Amino acid sequence: xxxxxxxxxxxxxxxxxxxxxxxxxxxxxxxxxxxxxxxxxxxxxxxxxxxxxxxxxxxxxxxxxxxxxxxxxxxxxxxxxxxxxxxxxxxxxxxxxxxxxxxxxxxxxxxxxxxxxxxxxxxxxxxxxxxxxxxxxxxxxxxxxxxxxxxxxxxxxxxxxxxxxxxxxxxxxxxxxxxxxxxxxxxxxxxxxxxxxxxxxxxxxxxxxxxxxxxxxxxxxxxxxxxxxxxxxxxxxxxxxxxxxxxxxxxxxxxxxxxxxxxxxxxxxxxxxxxxxxxxxxxxxxxxxxxxxxxxxxxxxxxxxxxxxxx
Length: 311
Ligand SMILES: Nc1nc2c(ncn2[C@@H]2O[C@H](COP(=O)(O)OP(=O)(O)OP(=O)(O)O)[C@@H](O)[C@H]2O)c(=O)[nH]1
Known about the structure:
The chain is an alpha/beta fold. It has eight helices and twelve strands. It has helices at residues 17-30, 71-84, 100-107, 127-131, 138-149, 164-177, 231-239, 292-310, and strands spanning 4-11, 35-40, 58-61, 89-93, 116-126, 153-157, 182-185, 218-224, 245-253, 260-266, 269-275, 282-288.
């Protein structure tokens, strides 16, 4: 199945997200790629939506933030776009106060996980605002740092407003927070699309499609079991999950039970509830530096041991 590339544009208010999106869309159209946009605004109206060319499918999410109150709706809008159009990519412009990992989490509902491929988290940073960040309230300062920390690419914008010397200082500071992120200093988001797009690397096992993309800072892995899983062995497995795995969600069937369970795991707390739906036995993992081949091996063993426990 062909999966749609997802790009998440994060970055504090006024950093240049809409300006960057316009540049990206111009270049995507020149390249004849079919792309769509989801625009999230905290307010009741979206002013920035007018800046999107008419031929690009656009969905708006207003009056809240996709990383919290509107997280369910993001999945719905993504599904609508994927079902209505044959797309290569979807760009999500999040609100300035969104946490990128929460946005990523909202994109990966178990129903969508096989249809989308998180390609990149791009954080826009206003260089002058970063220098003055001590003037911001602590939660906002923390948020901007988190946006930097979890980015695959940091577009360090508005460098016309700072000195060469300050630029070097900022680059060092960003490197300390996110050593693997690619830093692109710009004026007026003047960048070439190829510098922020990545080519997907194939999984190591050619016979089995893997949905983990190695270049990403925050990695995701989708695993589908072919058989029901022993509940006790699954609980044992949960106890071994490292802190670097932030989220696990999906549907699971247990040996000897006819119903499917909706499974959620966040910040070390697992929860499973009966689901009326007959879903695939699929789990989505989201984590920092997630070792997907090791995880795949562990989950395959879990399935093998579950089957052995039946006999
Ligand atoms: N001086 C300067 N201004 C810039 C630069 N890039 C963007 N701007 C201006 O900054 C303002 C905010 O840019 P936007 O692209 O709307 O930023 P945004 O992140 O989408 O803003 P929100 O939607 O409010 O979060 C606009 O007036 C831009 O023209 C730059 O490199 N230098």
